[in-house]
Amino acid sequence: MQQNVKHWTMTRLTSIPLAVLFFYFVGQSEYITTKSRPVFITWVKEPMVTGALLLFIICGFWHALLGMEEIIIDYVPSKNTQALCLWVNKLFFLVLGAACFYAVLKISFGNY
């Protein structure tokens, strides 16, 4: 039961920064949707934007991981298959999140 409470709490805690960052990025949509690559790169290199993007990646992938875990636990009946799916789920979100994190850092600190 304690694991369920922790899972529920972490899902709610990761949704708070996502909600705030959603509105921040909506306000920044002119830079996100620009057709000019140099404008976008310059925007990403701003420290506040880099921090917001990294926080969004961490919270977003963690929140998605927790949500998928709930789906797997609820709908995969076999315990062995469930364990495998949970492991693949963690690996998937770790690899994809690390790639996104790296991409933002590469843009922010790279020679673009």
Structural account:
With 112 residues, the protein is an all-alpha fold. The protein has one domain (2-26, 47-109): Up-down Bundle (3 helical TM bundles of succinate and fumarate reductases), CATH 1.20.1300. Helices cover 88% and strands 0% of the residues. The longest helix is centred in the C-terminal third of the chain and has 31 residues, at 79-109.
Oligomer classification: single chain
Q: How many domains would you count in the coordinates?
A: 1
Poorly predicted runs: none
Q: How many strands, what sense, and barrel or not for the largest sheet? A: none
E-strand count: 0
Distance between the termini: 50 Å
Structural class: mainly alpha
The helix/strand order is HHHHH
**Roughly what percent helix?**
over 70%
Radius of gyration: 17 Å
DSSP strand content: under 5%
CATH architecture annotation name: Up-down Bundle
Number of helices: 5
